[in-house]
Amino acid sequence: MKARPNQRLSSQAMAFVLAGGRGSRLKELTDRRAKPAVYFGGKTRIIDFALSNALNSGVRKMAIATQYKAHSLIRHMQRGWNFFRAERNEYLDILPASQRVDESKWYLGTADAVAQNIDIVDSYGVKYVIILAGDHIYKMDYEIMLVQHVATGADVTIGCLTVPKAEATAFGVMHVDVDGRITDFLEKPKDPPTIPGDPAHSLASMGIYVFNWDFLRDLLLKDAEDPNSSHDFGNDLIPDIVKNGKAMAHRFSESCVTTGLEDEPYWRDVGTIDAFWQANIDLTDFVPKLDIYDNSWPIWTYAELVPPAKFIHDEDGGRRGYAVSSLVSGDCIVSGSEVRNSLLFTGCRTHSWASLDHVVALPQVDVGRRAELSHCVIDRGVKIPEGLVIGKDPEEDAKWFRRSEGGVVLITQDMIDRWSRAKL
Questions:
Q1: Mean of pLDDT values over 125-141
Q2: pTM for the full model?
Q3: Is 169 exposed, middle or buried (0-12, 13-18, 19+ CB in 10 A)?
Q4: CA–CA separation, 288 vs 300, rounded Å?
Q5: For 230-247, how does the pLDDT look when each residue is reduced to its tens digit (9 = 90+)?
Q6: DSSP letter, residue 67
């Protein structure tokens, strides 16, 4: 593609989103759906954040590589992201692992997922490729990262978080010089290298990479022929470029999109039950760490046609329908029940004298009368029996449901059915 004067770099780029992982640390939440398809924030899915960042940045060509239990994700893409028009030079391709290269090969690694679709990327006619993970929550302008990539003449530019040194042991960590060039890449080091001039912090990889497509294409073909490679960006390609090429670090703080209300750049890997629960509950804060009410940087998703939320009953004796410090989505009916510091997704029902405190309820959850729920995540479509109490007795909770290390209780319908049979 030949660039025009003053043309945004994002118009010459495509986003390749890696969305094939299960996310096993989310336990039963990913029994029926891949991690990127897990619900988040009241009406969106996790993958909507990476895709919205690309769209808002000016990227109009996207590909999503799927593998594990992809139906829920693919259906969401078809319903919520079907507005791209080829006549406007816009494209969104869903690329399931489909044995295109070899009948015995699925996607063997993150790099292999791109390598198996080289012909499709070629067809876009793009100059730059942005490799994205589909399972993180953040707002970022990729155009700023592209500008840095071109200005520095890098072979790869890697998005990096500034994290306390003590926390960096859980990440891939960049050792950089004073110019931001990456001189070493260490996977989960016991003694992480720190930022020059800042001994308290390290640079951790976000799993976001910008490449010139010509360079990446050659690298992928070379890697595909290497029998000793795991065909993974973090394990194979990135260390090779750090050693033999020019890898530059891009700090997330320079391209994080904020409204001025946030205290610090917000990025979360909601890969555990505790992290998932906390990130959703964070949205109920008076001043949330992530502002999802920013109309200048919307989070695009499947906009269901549903009626407004409704709150009914206002009687003495506690039969009063109300919500405080909570997010209540459309088609929810809070009927004579108390909702505090909670997040209710579309279509939830809470019945008389029930109480919810720090609860994340996914779509179509039904909470029976006099149920008392605290610090829990409820999977889609679960029917909470009348009078069930969760969050007061850790041993009883762990007996029937999944209780996390942080004390958050995950509830699925299978767990409820098992509990119900035992109580008969």
A1: 96
A2: 0.94
A3: middle
A4: 19
A5: 999 988 999 999 999 999
A6: -
| Of 207, 209, 193, residue with least CA distance to 245 | 209
Q: Is 167 helix (H, G, I), strand (E, B) or coil?
A: helix
The token duo for 221 is 């073909």
pLDDT tens digits for range 351-406: 999 999 999 999 999 999 999 999 999 999 999 999 999 999 999 999 999 999 99
Q: Quick one: DSSP state of residue 260?
A: S
Residue 135 CB-half CA count within 13 A: 26
What residues form the annotated binding site?
A: 107, 172, 187-188, 205
Number of Cβ atoms within 10 Å of the Cβ of 108? 18
Question: Going by DSSP bridges, is the β-strand pair 247-251/156-164 parallel, antiparallel, or unpaired?
Answer: parallel
Q: Which residues are annotated as part of the binding site for alpha-D-glucose 1-phosphate? A: 107, 172, 187-188, 205
CA distance 52 to 48: 6
Instruction: Find out whether 87 and 78 touch, Cβ atoms under 8 Å.
Output: no
Q: Are 300 and 55 in contact (CB under 8 A)?
A: yes
Domains of the chain: 9-284 (3.90.550.10), 310-423 (2.160.10.10)
